[in-house]
Amino acid sequence: MKRVFPTHPTNDPVIENPWQRLREFTDARIGLGRAGVSVPTKHLLAFQLAHAQAIDAVHTPLNIDGLIENLVSQSWCPKGQPLRLHSRAEHRDMYLQRPDYGRLLNKASEQILEDHAYLCDDKYDLAFVIVDGLSALAIEENIAPFLGELIPALTSGPEPWRIAPLCFVEQGRVAIGDHIGQLLNAKCVVVLVGERPGLSSPDSMGLYLTWGPKVGKTDAYRNCISNIRPAGLNYPEAGRKARYLLNEARTKQLSGVQLKDRTDETALEHDNDNHNFLISKK
């Protein structure tokens, strides 16, 4: 069959996709259109930029000195000199190749915490552990405004939390919080870590809460709040969820799969409804 070509030139070689209107509701790459059989150049370049930003987020070191200087100047910062620690992963390549090394402190950091515990008689309810993880950018962008929402609420309530000096960890993973909490003899530990960057979220921070931290605990004993950032879960909402989980953990003396986040009003309404949703109402 003979192919018929248009008799007049087209001004725009890009054929738009009718789904492009849905893109205002999501960061997903949908409705991009096409140029011939290819993705339009502007979308290809945007994808390559996002990929480069994700790589940078993984490999850029955390500016701990600047971070400590910023946080200790805040009125809500817990008392005591911040503790600067390091995992057993000596450098970034080792961190990426040996995840197990990122879950434990090196000997020097263990000694720092043991000395602190020996010199300080304070009994801590809670320890915040700030970890670079897989995105230092996430920590640098989100840690100060989020803690500024959370800590004042924890220390000013009817039952204020006794909070340990802030702990900063290089080349760390989530489970390293258990090691730190155990050495500090803290009742609860909250790990704030840079999450694995996506192609639209290189700045996503995660929160992991463990009651009774101890080396060897699995993820089943942790509660997670993910995607804390302005374009994801905003700071007031993340702080509200964290306060609820912390207060419930202290009341029930547990965390993990046995502790449910019931901050969503619809979940509470559903719990009060004895009707079985599998059976239609007559």
Description:
With 282 residues, the protein is of the alpha/beta class. The chain has one domain (60-262): Ethanolamine ammonia-lyase light chain (EutC) (Rossmann fold, 3-Layer(aba) Sandwich), CATH 3.40.50.11240. It is built from eight helices and eight strands. Strands 3-5-4-6-7-8 form a six-stranded mixed beta sheet, sandwiched between helices. Strands 1-2 form a two-stranded antiparallel sheet. β4 (126-131), α5 and β5 form a beta-alpha-beta unit. α5 crosses α7 (235-252). The protein is elongated and about 85 Å long. The mean pLDDT is 89.
* Backbone shape: elongated
| Overall mean pLDDT | 89
How many structural domains in the coordinates?
A: 1
- Quote the beta fraction: 5-15%
Number of H/I helices: 8
Radius of gyration: 24 Å
Notable characteristics:
single chain, 282 residues, alpha/beta, Rossmann fold, six-stranded mixed β-sheet, two-stranded antiparallel sheet, 8 strands, 36% helix
